[in-house]
Amino acid sequence: MKKSALQIARAAYQPKLPVTLTGAVMAVEGAPTQSVADQEEIAKLFPNTYGMPELRFEKNPNPMVGKSVNVGVILSGGQAPGGHNVICGLFDGIKRINKDSRLYGFLMGPGGLVDHKYIELTADIIDEYRNTGGFDIIGSGRTKLEKKEQFDKGLEILKQLGISALVIIGGDDSNTNAAILAEYYKAIGAGVQVIGCPKTIDGDLKNEVVEASFGFDTATKVYSELIGNIQRDCFSAKKYWHFIKLMGRSASHIALECALQTQPNVCIISEEVEAKNQTLQDVVNYIADIVAARAARGDNFGTVLIPEGLIEFIPAMKSLIAELNDLLAHNADFSSLDAEAQRKFVIENLSADNSAVYASLPAGVARQLTLDRDPHGNVQVSLIETEKLLSEMVGRRLEEMRAEGKYNGKFSPLHHFFGYEGRCAAPSNFDADYCYALGFNAACLINAGVTGYISSLRNLKKPSVQWLAGGIPISMMFNMERRHGEMKPVIQKALVRIDGTPFQRFAAKRADWAINTQYVFPGPIQYFGPAEVCDQPTKTLHYEHLDK
Asked: For the segment 57-74, what is each residue's pLDDT rounded down to a tens digit?
């Protein structure tokens, strides 16, 4: 396969490990842990892996050659920049512990484990994928590991290959499944460790000890470059309003980070909309007022950032979607009805309030709310064209304002959705280092003999050599949530905190950005050059850890 000049140069980049991981390490136990919520219920569901201590790695003054180990690895869920480096770090980590260790990759996600589809990842293969984007080394998938039959089927191939540790690289749902698998294998004495690694560009898998999920840094820098390019064009042409939808179904971290990097005229934060109990019309009025205020200055152009999950955070819509999820989860024949019959069925079977909201929606949006669910039973909000819905409603509101004598401008909207553009980008230096260290750290957790842990690196605001390595029990992040109409243990999503420093920094500036054109143009990711250009973490991470 022909490689670009950048690919060739990046292949030679050596990720910078935390100093602690550059030699032999030993695991030091911290205090016992408990889940973030619903402690009694979680403890009952995870009797073998609940309450385990946090671990930190320190230099081992008495290093010994570790025993060889066969390890399996799975890429689960959507792609995120740096996944290949996690696998490279894992490979190098187990080889350093013992050169005879072997790594097997299960193909196309968790389904590869269940269906016994795998390859051995050798040095020749690994070296082709260092510092590259994508998940194509073994592919990914969204099969959920949650049934005993799947666990037992997977155990067959693990035993056949002599695999005693399995690393699952994924987001909150994938790591939830990793914890469930770890609990089951420990309960039956299977002799298989399960370790997780925190992945998601959405940025919603984090807490005090998992400071960031990998891929968020690269993806937001890619999106910010694109937004900056659009804003430069917008400022040049001076005649278009660009409505830009960004990935982030369950949280608005991407939208907030991109706003901090590019300073758009409008950025909607879903969590604020929910906290203020705003309606869809409230959001429309907010945008329309800014459009009108800019038009009064002769500026008939601007940019609006919209998180893809906005619809689910508008309280009336959230209530509707929650009831829809339950209704459709228990009516398997729904998909066999034609569109008119589906609409009639929904209106007749929802509560009065939600039925009224559903009936009031444009037919296209209402239809999108009843399309096939994702594997977790949720509305596929990325299919809802929120950016077009908002621009259309803003246009209508502006015409009302024109009739009232409150608007006398031109409104020409254009639409964008930035999603897949950022998922497989070549990782930034931060993500290249972070991912490699996460994989290497996972190898250390395997060598420590633990299971049900997630690879954790802290102090991420500092240079990578100063990061703190260790692991935390996945069960520590659990709470109970309704899924497919039932209460289940899942990792608690980290939403944008409107009392948090990143949001407060944004909120303090947005009124100025709205009226006075203050665009910033970040430009493309830089891989070579001064650290202040190439190695800076996200503004979110910087603001969240100002005092550390």
From this structure: 999 988 887 899 999 999
